[in-house]
Structure formats: C-alpha cells, structure tokens
Amino acid sequence: MVKYMNNQSPKRKRKNEDVKGSVFTFFSTASAVGKTVLAVNYAADLAERGYKVCLADLDLQFGDVCNYLGIKPTQTFFDYYEQEENKRDTASCMTETQFGFEVLAAPLEVDEGFIIDAETIVEAINQLRDDYDYILLDTTTGFTGISMAILEQTDVLYLPCVVDFIPSIKDLKIGLDTLHKLQFDYQRVRLILNRNKAETQISTKDVEALLGRPFQYFISNDYQGIMQSIKEAKPVALTEAPNKLADEISDMVSEELGEKEETSGGISSWFGSLFK
User: Fold this and answer.
1) Which of 65, 141, 161, 251 could cross-link to 57 by cystine, CB 3.0-4.6 Å?
2) Nearest Cα to 131, choosing from 247, 21, 37, 244?
3) What is the Cα–Cα distance from 107 to 32, expressed in whole angstroms?
4) Is 220 helix (H, G, I), strand (E, B) or coil?
C-alpha cells in the first residue's frame, strides 16, 4: 500500500449513500494502557486503505492526539461547542494531517473541556457519521456522563490492557463487569493485550480466565519504536521499514473490516458488509 504523506483527505468511500459512518471507540478504565497510540495508528492504517477517517480526541481535558502527531490546531472541540446551537458544524473545526485523516482536536485549556456536555458530544458524532467512513474516538479514562453517551454511539469498543500491572487488570475486570451491567453488547467489545510479551510474571491465560473472555488482539511491546514514532510525529503504522507492531495493527484493521480470514469465531464478519 502507498504510505500516506499528504494532506489530501479522500472522499467518503461508500457504495451505499444511506450508510452512516462507523464509530470505533478506544476506551479504558485504567490509565497508561496505550489508547491514544492505538487510536492514532488505527486511523493512519484506515486512511492508508483509502477510507475517509476522522479521529476525534474526546479526552476533553488531557487529550494527547495532537501532541502525538505534532500538529497545532486552530480550531478544537471547544470552538464547535461555542458555535450557535442548531448551527454547529464539525467541518469548520477539523484539523488536517499529512497522513490522510483529519482530527477533531481536544480543547486547548482544561476549563474549556470541563464545560462541554454529553449532548454536544452526541450531536458532533452524528454529524461526523455523515461525513466520514470511520470515526475513531479517543476517550478519557473511566465511566463519566460523557463516556456513557459515547458508548451509546459506539459500533465497536476497543479495550486495551497491559498485564504487567495488577491494578490495570483489576480496573479492566471492573470495566467489563460494568459494561455487562449496562447491557452493552459484548459482541461489540474487543479486548486488546497491548505491550504483549513485556517482562511480567503474570500469565495471559490467567488474566483471560479472570476476565471470563479471551483477548481478540495482541500488540507487541515496542517501546523504542513508539518513542521514535512520537519523536518523529509519524504513526508507526506508516513506517517504511518492517515493523511487527505496525503489522499487528494492520492485521487488526483487516480483521475488523472483514478483509482477513476469520480466526476468532466470526465476531467481526458483520462489519465487512457495511460498505457494500
């Protein structure tokens, strides 16, 4: 595939004009599990395939997407919120990247993020569904009024986890139990073991037994590669050199889009028909 390095966002790649864009949410009940890194690289891979992609940074107080990508937005979600009601327009608040996808940036100031309400979030997501094939949401940690509203708009929920830290496992278990109580469809949940095979005494199988379900995806531990990616402000998914982490993210995207043979019981095959 051609590596995206321009600022020309593609037109929406949909064969059925009535099909709304799909919302992929990266969520966690524990901090420092790699939500933003995964969301940025997932967006880059989707854009590389020719889809029109938006990455919305909905960690409204401490969002890191723009820092990762080395971009300085002139408009943010707060500017969208400040627009006159019933005339709000997400298109006027987007920031282009050189990687083929656009970003709806988090507010620049903590107090700006604090006043944005869940209703405005839902309104923005619905607008983005009309304009993009895929809307990726990077969220804050934990259950809040806003995150609950986001869950209701989510087609696929990604829950990254690291197993080298026991509190992270505990928080993930609590998160899964809470989703069950909320009657969130487990068929839409994907568990990601991030930093797989990092030095740890905790068995992956033991963690899966505790959680009551297996991990769908495994992302390698590549600290140096990620740090270099952040330093260069370029998603590791677009690296020219062979990179296992980039390959694993690409495989995850292919699996979700139904572009790869099923190996996990068919949990994602229904997505492959969205753009037919």
Assistant:
1) 65
2) 21
3) 20
4) strand
Q: Are 53 and 13 in contact (CB under 8 A)?
A: no
Which 8-state DSSP code applies to residue 4? Answer: P
Cα–Cα distance, 165 to 200 (Å, whole number): 8
Q: Where are the alpha helices (DSSP H) in the chain?
A: 35-48, 65-69, 77-82, 110-114, 118-131, 145-153, 166-181, 204-211, 223-232, 244-257
Is 236 strand, coil or helix?
helix
Predicted pLDDT at 42: 96
Q: How far apart (Å, rounded) are the C-alpha atoms in residues 181 and 262?
A: 29
> Alpha-carbon distance 109 to 243, whole Å?
36
Pair of tokens at residue 207 = 């963690």
Of 54, 55, 49, 69, the closest CA to residue 2 belongs to 49
Quote the mean pLDDT of the chain. Answer: 85
Task: Using pLDDT thresholds of 50, 70 and 90, give the confidence band for residue 24.
Answer: very high
CB burial string 76-86: b at 16+ within 10 A, e below: bbbbbbeeeee
d(CA 68, CA 235): 8
What pLDDT digit, counting tens, does each position of 111-149 carry?
Answer: 999 999 999 999 999 999 999 999 999 999 999 999 999
pLDDT at 223 over 70: no
